[in-house]
Amino acid sequence: MGFNEVIGQEEAKQQFMKLVAEQRVPHAMLLCGPMGCGKMALAIAFASFLLGERDGSDPLQSEAVKVLPELTADKKRNAEAMLAKLAHPDLLFSYPVIRPAGTSTDHKMESDDFAKEWNQMVVNSPYFSMDQWLAAMDAGNQQAKIGVGESDSLIRKLSMKSSQGGYKVCIIWLPERMNGECANSLLKLIEEPPSQTVFIMVCEEPERLLETIRSRTQRFDIKKIDTPTLEKALVDKRFIAEEVAHRIARVANGNWLAALNELDSGNENRLFLDMFIMLMRLAYMRKIKDLKKWSDAVATYGREKQKRMLYYFIHLIRENFMYNFQNPDLNYMTIEEEEFSKNFARFINEANVVELTETFDRGIRDIGQNANAKIVFFDIALKTIVLLIQK
Asked: Which is nearest to 111 in space by CA: 143, 64, 73, 151?
């Protein structure tokens, strides 16, 4: 894919082209930013540019092309054909995987075990979430990791010369999910990579990445997609009416995945809104038995879904608190959320907004540490009873 397929991020595109033009491409790049901002799309577009997909659509790109190995027309066509299918031999992907039931414990899991599923998902769209990837792997309640089998595989692959005589690019998606053994194994390779090898790490939680790896990369902070660009993309790519696109773009807050989710009539956030409303009503009425049933129901969700729901709850707490100021410019809600907030917002105030947020945030942390979900959510429900009456 080319840079023209990346939504917005003009500043990052220009920055990458300038690095090439000045022959300062880092051997290890760390792309950080919020979900849905297009980090993976940028990584693939930059890798594709280095490997041969160059349209020369802007002056800076033309300058960058001058310092790269010259490609004949045939080589350029071949490179573009291979990159379109993500089948270029000098483009490697590394990503978290699960261990399917029945897999021998002697087998060290690696990305190649799910190469077909990965290729299908990324070719379909470079904008995707961990939940989509887990569904593609049929992961159930498992959490995906990058283990030592992956580092062994990368060391083996990168020891071979470039098949096309140019760069070799390795894109590592969510390197923060590497276990310690894998991270330590890759450390020397990242520190002293083979000639013309570029690592592009696409990271959402850089603080979880091993410090010794983080310190050996050049970090690039990718911003949220600005609202006008997101709005235009909805109109151009999804043929949405401008007034609808404007509201969705504001609610999505720079996240293309969130914007697409809002277009889905059965989207996940509608379920989360229902669960939030149920929690607040049952907590207000102090229906302990029903809150226990609510907790048991939520505990059946996968851990990633549970964390997304709690992030959504934090978002709603913020929006309901801000709703009390009666300034529409401060609010980012859907029509359904706003209808609920008309009557509910008065219950969120200076006395409980921080503690409610912290309660949900602790829940995210506990779920991430594999705590018992039934206990976590019932504890949240009981604390909500107390916090809702604070004024």
From this structure: 151
DSSP string, 11-47: HHHHHHHHHHHTT---SEEEEE--TTS-HHHHHHHHH
At residue 47, what are phi and psi to the nearest 5 degrees?
Answer: -60, -45
Burial class (CB in 10 A: 0-12, 13-18, 19+), 90: buried
pLDDT at position 277 over 90: yes
Please enumerate, as own/partner, the contacts of 14-20 that have beta carbons within 8 Å and a separation of 24 or more: 14/60, 15/220, 16/42, 16/46, 16/49, 17/58, 17/60, 17/61, 17/63, 17/64, 18/60, 18/64, 20/49, 20/50, 20/64, 20/67, 20/68
Average pLDDT rounded to a whole number, residues 349-376: 94
Q: Which helix (H) or strand (E) covers residue 320, if one does?
A: helix 303-323
Encode pLDDT of 199-236 as tens digits: 999 999 998 888 888 899 999 999 999 999 999 999 88
Pairing of strands 218-221, 197-203: unpaired
Helix 373-388 / helix 353-368 crossing angle, nearest 10 deg: 180
Give the tokens for residue 86: 């993500």
| 197-203/28-32 β-pairing | parallel
| Mean per-residue pLDDT, 121-140 | 91
Q: Read off the amino acid at residue 190.
A: I
CB 150 within 8 A of CB 22: no
Query: Do the Cβ atoms of 249 and 27 come closer than 8 Å?
Result: no
